[in-house]
Write the structure tokens for this entry.
Amino acid sequence: MLDSCKLKSACNLPVIYNKKINTTGTSNADVPLSDPGMYQLDITLKRGQSLAARDRGGTSDPYVKFKIGRKEVFRSKIIHKNLNPVWEEKACILVGHLREPLYIKVFDYDFGLQDDFMGSAFLDLTQLELNRPTDVTLTLKDPHYPDHDLGIILLSVVLTPKEGEHRDVTMLMRKSWKRSSKFQTQSLRLSDVHRKSHLWRGIVSITLIEGRDLKAMDSNGLSDPYVKFRLGHQKYKSKIMPKTLNPQWREQFDFHLYEERGGIIDITAWDKDAGKRDDFIGRCQVDLSALSREQTHKLELQLEEGEGHLVLLVTLTASATVSISDLSINSPEDQKEREEILKRYSPLRIFHNLKDVGFLQVKVIRAEGLMAADVTGKSDPFCVVELNNDRLLTHTVYKNLNPEWNKVFTFNIKDIHSVLEVTVYDEDRDRSADFLGKVAIPLLSIQNGEQKAYVLKNKQLTGPTKGVIYLEIDVIFNAVKASLRTLIPKEQKYIEEENRLSKQLLLRNFIRMKRCVMVLVNAAYYVNSCFDWDSPPRSLAAFVLFLFVVWNFELYMIPLVLLLLLTWNYFLIISGKDNRQRDTVVEDMLEDEEEEDDKDDKDSEKKGFINKIYAIQEVCISVQNILDEVASFGERIKNTFNWTVPFLSWLAIVALCAFTVILYFIPLRYIVLVWGINKFTKKLRSPYAIDNNELLDFLSRVPSDVQVVQYQELKPDPSHSPCKRKKNNLG
């Protein structure tokens, strides 16, 4: 699978050829223009050379548009201040016939002004040889000034026939190529032809270890390198390592393997530059078909078009149990099948495949009262079910506000603290899918085997939108495996919204951090008031407690105090004296942010000036993110002791009990000795081990106040009760 796919209908408008590009090999010009078959056009936009200068400084900010039948099907990213830009972007386009050429237009981006035209060219699809990669060089021309030299664009294209598949398209991906959008919105459509299908055939586990002797891109003789990985439509970006030519990343992530023969992983290394476009360091590839299965391969890859090496560990494993089936033919109540699953995750199989924590089954039954997204007053809804990086979809029910899908999805659970996201979209053939509603359900909050009506929420998950969705979910997991996985780094999503600058988000994070800081300030004021004897009885009690604690202090008392605090809050909750309050302040701020997002979506081209100044924007985004991290850290500590997630609070109690016993019976010097020996010998015992902090990994599973609001289940209208619906049907 590739970055983007769009299904384009035939266009009856005539197209005037500006320049016809011939490719090597046998052409398919003899294909009838009325051929009803479908073709897949895979394009790699490589680079441009000697492009026209359109700015005062003698440079340009070029980007490229692809059009078929006067409809835009692809828009590249903007390369700032460069007449020889390198894009290396891929697009996959499904075309109904070859009559329409591919129209390539290059523009110079100008903020606040109309973008300057930099040239155009046509690619005649009938001149391409089928099933053969072809390198194409397009000479850019201006129809008004045909003698001007405007440079060239280099492409690589593959044209593949898809005969007979236009009626049963198994998968359709769309991408919104609006320049104002900082992230991709993808939607898929599955046909009903396959009753049960495993969508991916294996897992590619990649560990980015280090870089060696990378090219210096900064004036100080160093670089700030990071690495991008791409396998089909899947992407991953590593963290940035500042000021080094020999970075140590130690990052691990997984890709899905869709093709039996493997695939090609494209790897590019970049140097991060604040205030301008990042510098290209080099590229390399990994051919998965050349690697053996169920074996870890250490690869030292030479960077092409640059300097240095990248060191990776790559492992190909068999597919996890991820599938889609029809509710009518799947028998989840089958006792034998359930017993096998329970046996797989029984306490006796603790050390068997620690990554396989549990099993999730999601029945997407139906939705009711959805929003009308089309001018006809109807919608074409389909449902996307996501668990971390696993993403499955239902078929589309056309022209219906009360669709019934009756699909069963199964996932392997790698982390019991994951959140199941179910999103409903309206399919639109001419543009990206319209958002209809979404729910986010933490796996630990699921009640097994219960069919529930979930109120759909807005994009930010802060308030309700129109409609409800009926789901029945089952979760089976091994509690010991889940506890152990809590102490390792959390899986990161490959494709997430890039951080954007937002006044509301910046204000929200500032207020959240201020509230965390004020807790410490108020505690300091309270202690100081004891020293000042503002309340003599309180100061006297504090003085006596101080003398007693200091005289009898032992190190084991620290975890013991935390344990007592957790226990005290637990008894307050079970006795009905819950001191946890609904965070209305955070909810109000999130609603304001949603309004701001809606405004941005409606007027995407009229953005604030601050969003266009890269240096200021990056600094503000960094401050915004730091505020969010500090506030989230404090909120997660609070929510651990507030029993927001009971599983994690019980896990904390077990850990604190163990620490208390260890500190009580074992002298501190022996504990420090064991800790130091482990730290010093860790790299010797496991050279490619990924560094982590167990405490921070634990806290990363505890939701912040913002996430608590987002995961909060809204109460549905009583009229949407399943029982009531059955009674109405009987009536």
